[in-house]
Specification:
This protein is an alpha/beta fold. 49% of the residues lie in helices and 7% in strands. It contains 22 helices and 7 strands. The strands form 2 sheets. It has a 5-stranded parallel beta sheet with strand order 3-2-1-4-5, sandwiched between helices. It has a two-stranded antiparallel sheet with strand order 6-7. α14 crosses α15 and α16 packs antiparallel against α17. The N and C termini lie far apart (64 Å). The relative contact order is 0.11.
């Protein structure tokens, strides 16, 4: 029998369906209301988020509010310090229980510890759940009971646990269904919240939430392939599966001019779709596959989901990754950190077409193709000799799907400072362009001033002055700079 008045605190789980914590809260609560807190520490445009991500968040919250109302309750949006606001809200409505899904970033873990201490003193019951990972990090260890430090063995163990555990049946993971009807608070109680000193965004107009998130607006949402909201995330997953995109993923995923990826990175980061739903979509695709090529493509996509969990496990087990390199010798690397080179890189003005196309895609759409993320990261570190943490921070301030674990993991992989058995990986930007943008379609899309240049010259960067039309000369010579990098690398061994 349901006995308690409860609060469910949304964080990186901006959805109603297959939300483990929300399912448990709805199952055990007589009255249930949702809350999302706009935490200033996570909405810092100078460090932790971007205009694009704030747009995705705001639009997703609007839909989430409507979904709560359809079920008979409300989602409150509070603005400020969660440690104070969650406690105040609980006291105001006389909540006996608070539910939430755990997060894995160091700041969030410490914040939650402080909230738990405060709520426990106030005799409020706290129930937390693991929702954003398929496998609990405590369950995925080496034979020596240590966390995995290399992706390959981690992936094999991860797959083995899923297929052999009780969480899956026929390789499909059980999805939790939130009830269609949730009993919330009455109008008098809601009015008391509105009239309290809680910083409460009661309006359900998009502008009001956007105003709380940022004074500036992300104006290029039409160019962003990641679509906010639970319904759009489900649509994107279904489109990727039903259009056959997942069946050709193995080859097409590296071609930046094609719309060949699922575009679910932001949805997974903010939780408008669950990792379990994504896993199940892949398994359904495997059941419909017609040949080995399609099966291999689907398995490659599943490995990307495993990469996400690997990086989150790494951050949980090695929280120091947030601040610096996994390989400590990189603390001694003599970075050159030329600010004019960095400015050219971030603005897409290096004079190297594939680099500039990728950076302009990021600047204009809030998103960058994954192959291009690797190319520009390698270039920043191993050509420009700039500290990878500069690039990591810039990505977090620019990406719609900025995620500390995945972004940090990707940058440390590219910089060779992370958990990587091949530390001397260097990408040649011209070879990368020739291999993955062989017709120059991607470069021409994002650098329109070079549309008239022949494809061979576009890919090689050998563009004569008369054809540049204001496009800059290359700021560095790739061969020379990577030679310098190798010498500096040798000096720290």
């Amino acid at each position: 029998m349901k006995k308690f008045r409860s609060i469910f605190w949304h964080r990186r789980d901006l959805r109603i369906e297959d939300n483990i914590g929300l399912f448990e809260a709805s199952k055990n609560s007589k009255n249930l209301i949702g809350v999302y807190v706009l935490d200033p520490n996570l909405l810092n445009l100078n460090r932790t988020t971007s205009e694009a991500k704030n747009w995705f968040l705001a639009e997703s919250l609007l839909e989430l509010q409507k979904n709560w109302e359809r079920r008979g309750s409300r989602l409150l949006i509070l603005n400020g310090d969660p440690i104070k606001l969650i406690s105040k809200l609980a006291d105001l409505i006389k909540a006996e229980c608070i539910y939430w899904n755990e997060n894995i970033e160091p700041y969030e873990i410490n914040r939650d510890r402080l909230i738990i201490e405060k709520l426990s003193k106030e005799k409020i019951n706290i129930h937390t759940f693991l929702d954003q990972l398929i496998i609990n990090p405590s369950d995925i260890k080496t034979n020596n009971d240590e966390p995995y430090k290399v992706y390959g063995p981690f992936y094999r163990k991860w797959i083995e646990i899923i297929k052999n555990s009780q969480i899956s049946k026929n390789n499909l993971i059980q999805i939790s269904r939130t009830p269609e009807n949730i009993r919330g608070l009455n109008e008098r109680e809601l009015s008391s919240i509105k009239n309290s000193d809680l910083n409460y965004c009661i309006s359900r107009e998009s502008d009001s939430i956007n105003d709380l998130l940022t004074s500036n607006r992300f104006n290029n949402s039409n160019l962003c392939p990641c679509k906010p909201g639970e319904s759009e995330s489900i649509n994107q997953l279904n489109l990727f599966i039903n259009s056959g995109g997942i069946n050709s993923y193995n080859q097409a995923r590296d071609i930046p001019s094609l719309d060949s990826t699922s575009n679910l990175s932001a949805a997974l980061s903010l939780g408008t779709i669950s990792c379990r739903a994504v896993w199940n979509g892949a398994q359904i695709s495997k059941n419909m596959a017609h040949n080995e090529y399609q099966l291999n493509s689907i398995d490659t996509w599943i490995k990307e989901l495993a990469w996400r969990e690997f990086y989150q496990n790494a951050l949980i087990n090695f929280p120091g990754l947030e601040k610096g390199p996994y390989r400590e010798k990189w603390l001694k690397f003599p970075w050159q950190n030329k600010s004019d080179w960095f400015n050219a890189w971030e603005n897409g003005l290096t004079g190297i077409p594939i680099i500039d196309a990728a950076m302009r895609q990021l600047k204009n759409s809030g998103w960058m193709h994954n192959r291009c993320r690797m190319i520009v990261a390698s270039f920043l570190v191993k050509d420009l000799l700039i500290d990878w943490r500069w690039g990591e921070l810039f990505f977090m301030k620019s990406l719609v799907d900025g995620d500390l674990a995945s972004n940090n993991g990707g940058w440390q992989w590219s910089a060779s400072s992370g958990m990587d058995p091949k530390p001397m990986r260097i990408f040649n930007p011209y070879r990368q362009a020739s291999k993955f943008d062989e017709n120059g379609n991607y470069i021409r899309k994002w650098i329109p001033e070079l549309t008239h240049v022949s494809t061979p010259n576009l890919l090689s960067g050998e563009i004569i002055s008369a054809e540049r039309k204001g496009y800059p000369n290359p700021i560095i010579n790739h061969k020379n700079q990577t030679s310098i990098f190798k010498e500096l690398y040798s000096s720290i061994n």
